[in-house]
Amino acid sequence: MSAAPVVNAPLDLAAWSQRHLARVEQALSRWVGEGAPAGLGEAMRYAVLDGGKRLRPLLVLAAEEAVCSGVAPDEAALRAQSDGAALRAACAVELIHAYSLVHDDMPCMDNDVLRRGKPTVHVQFGEAQALLAGDALQAFAFELLTPDDGSVPPAVQAVLCRLLARAAGSAGMAGGQAIDLASVGVALTEDQLRHMHRLKTGALLQGSVMMGVACGPADAQAHEALSDYGAVMGLAFQVVDDILDVVADSATLGKTAGKDAASDKPTYVSLLGLGNAQAYARELQVQAHAALARSGLADTRALAALADMVVDRTH
Amino acid sequence: MSAAPVVNAPLDLAAWSQRHLARVEQALSRWVGEGAPAGLGEAMRYAVLDGGKRLRPLLVLAAEEAVCSGVAPDEAALRAQSDGAALRAACAVELIHAYSLVHDDMPCMDNDVLRRGKPTVHVQFGEAQALLAGDALQAFAFELLTPDDGSVPPAVQAVLCRLLARAAGSAGMAGGQAIDLASVGVALTEDQLRHMHRLKTGALLQGSVMMGVACGPADAQAHEALSDYGAVMGLAFQVVDDILDVVADSATLGKTAGKDAASDKPTYVSLLGLGNAQAYARELQVQAHAALARSGLADTRALAALADMVVDRTH
User: Fold this and answer.
1) Residue A37 is nearest to which of B44, B148, B178, comparing CB atoms?
2) CATH of the domain at B225
3) Which domain does B193 fall in, by range?
4) A 104-123 near B (Cβ less than 8 A)
5) For A15-47, what is each residue's pLDDT tens digit?
6) Residues in a beta bridge with A119
7) pTM of the full predicted structure?
8) Structural domains counted in chain A
9) Residue B8 falls within a domain, yes or no?
10) Which phi and psi (to 5°) does residue B273 adopt?
11) ipTM value of the model?
12) pLDDT in tens, B81-129
């Protein structure tokens, strides 16, 4: 694939995102809560639909698009299969993200009442239903990855489940949340803070990229470069999140701003200062582009644009 | 496999269970909490190790043994691969069961302080850690099913993940818990009660049997018969659970007895009366044996003995 001509024409990220998000929203709306008892299904849909930037699904789809950019146009069947797997993977990572927010907002965790400008799930449906909805969303993520209709090859299903389970579990997202929990009021070093965020936010963002890679054909060079890109994106996302918690207001964020400082949580801003945190975000942006440049893939424009979006975002 | 001679020699269930449980306990002790941050890993291990009847793992292993009972003794490699997959599946279903207990015991659900004679996880580690430990255990179940060491064929990994996700999710265990939640103080019909339990308890028990089946070779006849067996076992387990909640004391149960009546939850005993509930359990026991008899499998003694154990148990 390294031999494929590199595509340099400008990418309209807004149009690209809109096209892909339409597929994701439609799929989520069709799948989430289907077959669930009424109350539970409603809570699951409330937690997932009509909200969020959908960054993780976009990373899955952009990564799949990048690794497929070397596939010959006449291999339509291969491309369609890869696209189908990527759509499922995109929805699955969003379900994991959504469940983590539901549980994270609960009174025994962050006790947050506002999320994406709406009452949080436990406020709307009660704590017990919120707990169950989160649990059911996690299970459903793995159900989405393992269809029995022949649309996704079993070997791809197995890799997607492995990547998602590792990204979500105790050595990934849940582990990062546990470290976060234990670090309130504790002075962390930059290394410790980075380790916490690599697990808490980074694992699922990097996992999203690698799940997209797993849907299509990727050689070792592309695999390694996109893994680096994913790791950098995870860090960048968190650094910018910490910056926005300080500089943005609740209305723009769609959630309670200033929570980190109020709860005495260590952040990149509290550790590095605002100016250095902003400089660090720029440095990570450069690293993300450098990783894409060494991937050998023909078209990494969507991944590049997402890196810019993550660093330049205002909410 | 229908042609294989049926094995009739008596099975010593205690010895059989002891042999298989040793493998399960050793595997769980090796795997659970590995790579997790200290506090989280401790809570995960506390929730899983040294406790429980391990009925679900035993069902996995007994089902795998049954479907492999027609495999020629010289196919040692096939048998070893199947055994390895079954051990992972056995541990995975137990992780799902354990996580469900952790979340179920939390204050916003059943608010129980005693489980298996020990303080519940949230009492011991706090609510936030209990929530995260449950979440991490669910993810880890899918991680166990998807090793990248070549020990389990990808197609088997995919089927195991599919069965477990469906059994655990909104059309299975989590869905049943949601119906249970909504039915406190509500008069259910026997059909509604059966539907609730088919999801809440039955799905994972039947799923355990079918995961065992998926690890070995099974023809359509065996597949269907063991699916029936699993469904009947799920029901029988719950009927006996409801009976024990009335007739046993907390010390024998290792959890608070009389909870159902105290919380005004519908049960088979409240619906059918104690005598009829006991008769129903016996009828289900007969149905379980009948299903095994039509499986065409050479050796279903362990599954048969587990059916007897489920109905005759005193805790």
Assistant:
1) B178
2) 1.10.600.10
3) 13-312
4) 106, 108-109
5) 999 999 999 999 999 999 999 999 999 999 999
6) A114
7) 0.94
8) 1
9) no
10) 90, 155
11) 0.94
12) 889 999 999 999 999 999 999 999 999 999 999 998 899 999 999 999 9
